[in-house]
């Protein structure tokens, strides 16, 4: 998978497409997806590490997502072609906002990604998702309204060992005016390694209470909702009764 295809949205984009050069090695479908220009350098660096078979360490891309906070450029989509697998993802409303290399300081005594740090790439993805739906950090600075996570459920399916680049996919599971329900999936070399399910509230920090999201954000979230939720969402922890 090329560098551009690692970070893209589910196709809610506009503008004139500029198709990438065709891949001679396999049949490709010209499906338009959006790639965030302001992250292109980070994604290129992530792909470099992936190609070299090494991890990034503290000097690698994203650096705990500091470049997100700096906001040197507005988020604006460009267009490329993607593979048939990506076409299937887009048709099922799977967003691909973010990829991130495994960092050495996230490893534990077992030599794999510690459970606490699975949430870091998921959280970094959530910031980009909020920007896409118009309720991100710029929105907070302007209005004082924020997206607060109130519940999280993580499933650890496979361990992640270096070298690795974690590709995060996002699903919008449902939404109401004051809240929305979403999930992230972590893949490494196409293998599903973890999922995270979140319930988030739209909170007015000035008034100290929840409030309805802007109409445009509500409309985008409704349009992005998956038609059928995965069977692993909405589960409760427990033991089987004897």
Give helix and strand order, one letter per element, not per position.
EHHEHEHHEEEEEH
Distance between the ends = 47 Å
Number of beta-strand segments: 8
Helix content: 10-25%
Q: Low-confidence parts lasting 5 or more residues at pLDDT below 50?
A: 1-50, 52-91
Largest sheet: 6 strands, antiparallel
| Rg for CA atoms | 18 Å
Mean pLDDT: 74
Task: Give the number of helices.
Answer: 6
Strand percentage: 25-35%
Described by the principal axes of the CA atoms, the overall outline is globular
Task: Describe the overall structure.
The protein is built from six helices and eight strands. Helix content is 24%, strand content 29%. The strands form two sheets. Strands 3, 4, 5, 6, 7 and 8 form a six-stranded antiparallel β-sheet that branches. A two-stranded antiparallel ribbon has the order 1-2. It has helices at residues 40-52, 66-70, 84-91, 119-132, 137-143, 215-224; strands at 29-36, 77-82, 95-101, 145-156, 165-176, 179-188, 191-204, 209-210. By secondary structure, it is an alpha+beta fold.
